[in-house]
Amino acid sequence: MASLAALTSLKVSRHQIPRYGLIPNTSIQNKPLLIYHQVFDPQNITPSLIEAHIRSVGSCEPQWRYPMYRTTHFHSTTHELLVVFRGDALLLFGGEGNPGRVEIKARKGDAILIPAGVAHKLVEESPGGFEMVGSYPRGAASWDMCYGAEGEDVDDTIRGVEWFHKDPLFGQTGPAVDAGEARVD
Description:
Layout: E1 11-15, E2 33-37, H1 47-57, E3 60-66, E4 80-86, E5 88-93, E6 102-107, E7 111-114, E8 120-125, E9 131-137, H2 155-159, H3 175-178
Antiparallel strand pairs: 1-2, 2-7, 3-9, 4-7, 4-9, 5-6, 5-8
């Protein structure tokens, strides 16, 4: 089993990102984009250990290993948990041109919890490559691909996406539980 950084010493960045054009970002549910910096020890982490840990918590189900798409996109049907297991990359959240966008350098060992509606894309990856484990809440609708295009009527769908009952990495307590009106099971 993978060991996590202690909650008391974990650095977590929380970002509210305003709507930008047809990209809702955090404007609907008001749940922040959460970045768990170095939540996993980058020296001792593998994709299999990450997946086993996520499954053991039981909130999310790992579904893929891949970098992030280079096209701005978001999901209206589910939140998304990403954990970096190889390399580092510059990631953009909120949409190009959005004055409220967030750009981060994601590193091996970081986890990112992306609320439904928040646009994201890979800007640049390290020369050695960049990969993540992608997970979605158990029982959630299958993920969709939205691009902030005309005809994507997603606000009501996003409103209906349930927030986490427990943190997908820490369980009964943690940044996702602290992010709002989540209840503890």
